Amino acid sequence: MSSPWSRTSTWDDGGLTIGGRRAHELADRFGTPSYVLDVADLRSRCREVREAAERAGAEHGVPVAIYYASKAFSATAVLRWAHAEGLRVDTASLGELVTALRAGVPGEAIGLHGNNKSVEEIDTALAHGVGRLVIDSLPEIDLVAERARAAGVVAPVMVRVTTGVHAGGHEHIATAHEDQKFGLSLATGAAREAIDRILATPELHLLGLHSHIGSQILATDGFVTAARALLRLRAQVAAEGGVLLGELDLGGGFGVAYTPDDDAPPVPDVVAALVGEVAAAARELGTPVPALSFEPGRALVGPAVTTLYRVGTVKPVRLDDGGERVYVSVDGGMSDNIRTILYDAVYTAAIASRTSDAPPRLSRVVGKHCESGDIVVRDVMLPGDIGAGDLLAVPVTGAYGRSLASSYNQLPRPGVVAVGDGEPREIVRRETIDDLLALDLG
Ligand code: LLP
After folding, report:
1. Ligand 1 centroid from CA 399, angstroms
2. Is 173 within 8 Å of 215 (Cβ atoms)?
3. What's the domain range around 425?
4. How many domains does the chain have?
């Protein structure tokens, strides 16, 4: 059992306080829905995982780097904080890459992923001296080599290997089994072919191998299985090709607790344990311990954000079993959190503007969209006196919340309010209907 509320969150008679600021004051000032980012939470998570990685690396005499997977939530302020805490940045599109550069993250501290990189993405990465491009297919080898030749540079690359490990909280986010679009298969020999071709291409410098097995993973065994597969491949390449690849990246995917019932191991501990496992397995194979890197996204920014909604309509409905469920409608919904309906994700919620002694009732938090699947929290016990005007808080919405948000039903996307770093302020402005109409050319 662990608290899903961000680290500086406290509760008293006045409800929820985050970063020293009352939720109801934030709501009055910035409106609802708003994503509230607890800066101390984010920074401390970044710091702790980086420190654990460095300590574990030092024990085995290798560097261990942490890349923040910016797809979880890409905003310049967040990237600046992550980078200030010693993290690098993982990107997967031109937009994420440009955002990282705009945040002042130096090219060499940025990685670029993507199963269908455009020429513009590759050229921009090479022009800014990006630290690594992760090769995802055989045709991409020639494309990156050609663009590197045109730019007059040698491109640092890794090979994304599909290890066959099936892991992840939901089928849509498992990424290392054979039948999906990412990476080069170990089983079919495509990964080995990619390695050999890259080693024979003077415009490419092969840094090492990459594996990302999925997301919201709570057990470590999948990571260990994948790491062992990469290590065996590395040993094979060293024995047959005479080249010892320097680095393995084990990707992201570390799970977090979304409700008090979830049990998620602390990510710094997981990373440290994995470094130990890799070191032991490398030695077993008689190979030197590789440099390592990881790409957590959700685990760093997810728990740092709480969404604040204003409650509107409250409607009890009769269930088939004779019971009752209270539908609590809020002023956002599937446009600011699609995860509930897309991945069957489970969240919790609480009244943030007051306390209540009213007996709790089985409730469902729903949005204001024209779909019955517009569910924010499927099942939660909320005080029976919840009503219009109450402020409702949903924790752990920082990862893939704003980044998967849409403007469905022409609902402007909420802003992101940072607290605990001076005066509370919007680091991403709330969208307006004028913003939406600005794209409508009539
Ligand atoms: N590295 C690579 C190559 C990835 O593809 C991803 C996530 C990460 C790192 C970061 O994974 P994380 O630590 O955040 O789990 N929209 C889904 C998650 C999709 C993850 C995609 N790739 C969700 O809301 O659960």
Report:
1. 9
2. yes
3. 10-38+304-438
4. 2
Q: Of residues 242, 286, 357, 370, which has the active-site annotation? A: 370
Confirm if 350 and 338 have CB atoms less than 8 A apart: no
One-letter amino acid identity for 342? L
Residue 370 annotated in active site: yes
Residues 280 and 326 in one domain: no
In tens digits, what is the pLDDT along the chain, a chain of 442 residues? Answer: 679 999 999 999 999 999 999 999 999 999 999 999 999 999 999 999 999 999 999 999 999 999 999 999 999 999 999 999 999 999 999 999 999 999 999 999 999 999 999 999 999 999 999 999 999 999 999 999 999 999 999 999 999 999 999 776 666 666 667 788 999 999 999 999 999 999 999 999 999 999 999 999 999 999 999 999 999 999 999 999 889 999 999 999 999 999 999 999 999 999 999 999 999 999 999 999 999 999 999 999 999 999 999 999 999 999 999 999 999 999 999 999 999 999 999 999 999 999 999 999 999 999 999 999 999 999 999 999 999 999 999 999 999 999 999 999 999 999 999 999 999 999 999 999 999 999 999 9
Question: Which DSSP string corresponds to 235-278?
Answer: HHHHHHHS----EEE----B---SSTT-----HHHHHHHHHHHH
For the record, the structure tokens of 374 come out as 């517009």
pTM attached to this predicted model: 0.97
Nearest protein Cα to ligand 1, atom 24: 400
Decide whether any atom of ligand 1 lies within 6 Å of the 399 Cβ.
Answer: yes
4, part of any domain: no
What atom in ligand 1 is closest to the CA of residue 297?
A: 14
